[in-house]
Every structure is written in structure tokens, then in C-alpha cells.
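Hey team,

Filing this mostly as a record. A colleague (T.K.) asked me to run one chain through the structure pipeline before their review meeting, and I want the input and output archived in the tracker in case anyone asks later how it was produced. No errors, nothing strange. Just documentation.

Input sequence:
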Amino acid sequence: MAATAGRRGEGEDVERELWQGRGEGVRGDVRAQGACGAPGDGPGGPVGPLIVTEDPVLLDDLLRLCAAAGARPLVLATLPERRGEWEAAPLVLVGDDAAARMERAPRRPGVLLVGRDQGEPAVWQWAVRIGAEHVLRLPDAEAWLVDRIADVVEGAGRSARTVGVVGGRGGAGASTLACALAVTAAAGGSRTVLVDADPLGGGLDVLLGGEQAEGLRWPAFARSRGRMARRALEEALPELHGLRLLSWDRSDTAEVPPQAVRAVLGAARRGGGTVVVDLPRRADGEVAEALAQLDLALLVLPAELRAVAAARRMAAVLAPEVRDLRVAVRPAGTPGAPGGGLAPDAVAALLGLPLAGVVPYDPAAVEAQETGTPPGSGPRGPLARFCRELWGRVASPDREPDGETEGRAQEDPVRRGDLFRAALGDAWAPAPGGAAA
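Output structure:
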């Protein structure tokens, strides 16, 4: 898809392929008794939920939401007769009209009771009887339900380790380090997405020698909203050196709306692997949306007193917005020559931040950039070794399940940093537009 998308060049031409959460009421083929083919059967599309209802209005709504999430559901009026269909369905949506018919169904996880009027006490009684995890009221819970169905399609799992890199002052080498981290992660076999969030940085595609590579750039996503399909995003982006890159084009576009940044990064993080974000030296608007999805932010600066003074201001801006902020120090003075500047530990102490490490000078990497060879691509170079060691230190096996961080990041745009420290709700937490059974 990348080549086709690159020729189109306009985001509005590919939104239908990229976005989930904007269903157009596609109903699909409904057989007698209201049944579609089994989830995932034939060329109809990816695996989808089991829908049990005879309410035509509710069925239209649920089919529309499934289409929005890219799912092809199995629709029945009552408990499936085919052996294994009830147990095999990744998600079950029971209409409130069908709840009484589902009482003899075996208990299983992933059952949602869905309707339009959940004020009747009988609805809650039936939710308990059929073992429903949530009682959802439409249309209030539509966005939440689309996300849940989309997780079934894409396979919800652990979200990618997401690291942002920002310069403590101009020219600190943050973009070089961001590229090196991404290249090193990709070389190690990790699914990797490198995101250029600095519109005034000149473009990471240039730094990677891929300015002519076909694929979408940031302006194509400016009008996007909602939930983005992860696989479609990756296929639309240029592939360079084993990673996917989202950079800027050569147009005058210098920003995209915060909603687009939120959705793009949310899609990039789903499915695990590694996401590296090259950040500008600010924390407002769309940058705040990027900061809200980071596991770690690296503040890069040389070991110079004036750089420390500038970085203290940047640290004060970043600290409330990110979960984990550390400093990466470059030696001061002539590159490659010993002596001069502050000690790395002293820099970290002056900033009041943990020291992530000392970024080495790599003469081979500097020379390679002139020929379009990405930094960190020489596996034996000091920069690549530093990146491998850093990834080893910051690996986070206990990151939140897919979508949890992204969802909470949207709840409170003022104190996003606190959201990362909140405990995860259990499986019976109230869903938007509904409540726990």
C-alpha cells in the first residue's frame, strides 16, 4: 500500500483505508435467521464478534460499529447451535432483547450486554445471569465499543515501549540519537516505528537518507480523527533500514492537530515493539499528546554549564507531562578529545534527573550521515553500542495492555503525567456510557 499511498499524496484520499471508528453503516450479507458467515470466514474480512439479537435497529447499529472497526461478525438470534461457536467467538455482543434466551449459555469472558435503554432493573438482573462483563448503552458507548471490537481484530496485546528524545538546547544531537535508537532497535529484530514530531527539524527522512522514499508524511494525517488501523498505518509509511518512518514532507505544513497526533501514536504503539519519537523543545498542543504516550523521555545535552541552564527550563516543562524523564549527556569540548565540561553525574545532579548514560562521539556515524547512512547503523560503532546498552536498561516488560495508556491520556489533558501513575482498573470497571454488571 505504501507505493499507492505515496502517489496519492493527500490524506483525505486514504482516510477510509487508514481509519477505524468512522463506519458508514455497512451491513454485510445476512442469511436466514440473521446469521453472517463465521468470523473470519472467506474473503469477507478479519475475525469479528458474535452478535446475538433480533432487534433490527440494534443490529444495524452493531453491524455499523463492526464495519467501523474492520470486523466481520457472526449474527444469530439465539445461542449458537454449532458446537464451539459460542466458545470460539473472541467477543460476544448480546442485545438486551436476547438476554433471556442466553441464560443457559456456558459462562465465558468477553460477554457484553448491549441496548439503548438500560434503566430497567431487569437488564441488570439478566447481565448477572448471563455473566456479562459490561452493560452498554448506545449511542453513548459507541466509541468504547468500537475500540473493543477493533482490539479483537488487531489482537490487543502489550503496547510498544515508547521513548521520546528531546534536546536540552538547540543542536544537542537529539535527532541523531532518536534515529540511532530506532535503527538499533530494528536491527535487533524489534518492530520499530520512528516518529518525527519536530516539524522544524528538517525531516528525519533526510537524516536516514530516505527523502525520496514512497509513503505518507505527517500532512496526510492532519484531518484524521478517531482510531487508526495499526497495520494500515505501517503499510502507508516509508520503510527504511528495517523500520517504519513518519516524517515531514517539504511543504509549508508545520503542525497537525493534537487529535491526529494522539491517534497516530496510539496506532503505532499497538502491537508491541518499539516506538521512538523525536520531539521539539516545547510541550504544548500536539507535543503534549505525544508526551502523554511516552514510557520514557530522554533529555539530551552537552556537559556544559550554559546547556544545563537551558535544559533546566526544558526539564521543568517536561517533568509534569511524562512518566519517566532521564538525562543523556554528551561530553563537552572538541568531539573525541578528552577533558573539558562538567562531569555527567554533575549534570544529572544539577537537573535533578536520573542519568540515562553518556552519549559517545562516533566519528564514523558523523561521516556516514553525509552519504545518507543512518546513525547507529554501524553495529560495532560506539553509538550503536550505547543504544543497545540503553535499550537493555530501559526495557519495560510490565507496560500496560494495549489502549490503556492511550485511553487515559485522553481523559485529562491537564495532568497527563499523573495518569500514567494511576492503577489499572479491573475487568469490572464501568465502561463509558454504561456500567459494570
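Quick notes for T.K.: The longest helix spans residues 174-187. The chain has a mean pLDDT of 78.
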